[in-house]
Each structure stands twice: as C-alpha cells, then as structure tokens.
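Check these lines:
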Amino acid sequence: MGNPYLLSGNPISFLTVLSSNLISFRSVLSSNPISFVTVLSGNPISFLTMLSSNPISFLTVLPSNSISFLTVLSGNPISFLTVLSSNALSFLTVLFSNSVSFLTVLSGNPISFLTVLSGNPISFLTVLSSNPISFLTVLSSNPISFLTVLSSNPISFLTVLSSNPISFLTVLSSNSISFLTILSGNPISFLTILSGNLTNF
C-alpha cells in the first residue's frame, strides 16, 4: 500500500479483491490506519477515481465491518477530508450510487464518524457544497438512520456546522424540500440534536 498510484491501475479488480475477503482487508487497515490515510492523501484524485468506477462494490465493502472502517478514518481525519475535498464531486457520486448502504456504515459507529468530521469541518462543508443536491439525495434515502447518526453526538455535529455556516446553508438552500423530508423522518431526534448545543447552532 506504499504506492497510491497502484489503486488507479484497475479499480474494478481492486474492489473485487476487497469484497472477496472483507475481514482480512479490515484487519490490514486497523493495524495501521494512519499509513492507510497517508496513502489516500498521496493521490486523492486517483483514489476517488477508483471509488467512482465501481461505487456499489465499494459500499458493499464498507458495511461488512463499518466500525473498523471508521477507526481508520478517525486515525487521521484531516488527511481523509483532504482526500474528499480534492474531488468532492466524485465522492458524492459514490454516495449517491448506494446511499442506503452508506448510511448503514455511518450508523455502525456514529461517534467516530463525527470525530472525523470535526477534525476539519471547513473542508467537509466544502465537499458538501460542491454538489449539495446529490448530498441531500443521499440523506433523504434513509433519513431515520441519518438522524440516528447525528443524535449520537450532537455537540460535535454542531461544531462542524458552526465552523462554516454560510457553506452549510448553501447546501440546504439548494434543495430545501429534500432537507425538510429528512427532518420530518424523525423530528424528535433532530430537535434533540439542536437542544444539545443551541448556542453553536
């Protein structure tokens, strides 16, 4: 995994390898998560090219052991967000292809996921603002699970939003109807999120 350019050589085959032995792959990542993220940041565009080539298979890999995956991300959240911001549009394309599975990954360990976001919230919002309509489409596919993720650690989530509120509102205003559909899926939990840290919001 020392050469990030190896991933872009044949992304479909690479994902086929991961899906055939998910447990071993996760063991590799958890052994040294910082190095894995270093590989991604070395060539983020190629990595996202790999994901977009076969997004369904990638998301199939994630939910098999979502807790370990989030452990990898939390090892170095700033570098991970650097990967996303380098090609935000492709990342959202990956999520959009199989949004339900993605939310399954988040709900596996929502606290760690929010730790990743809070590491560099400005970059995360840059990713969202690049294609806000697709992002909201991802959330609306399974609004209940999304709110479950947020409610697990509402303070950290609001910290992310408050770092760059203008960009976040740009995301919401692009597709306000879908966002409200997300909130109405579980309004009680959403209000619990807000009340956790009303000042920052």
Residues 11-20 form the longest helix (10 residues). The two ends are 40 Å apart (CA to CA).
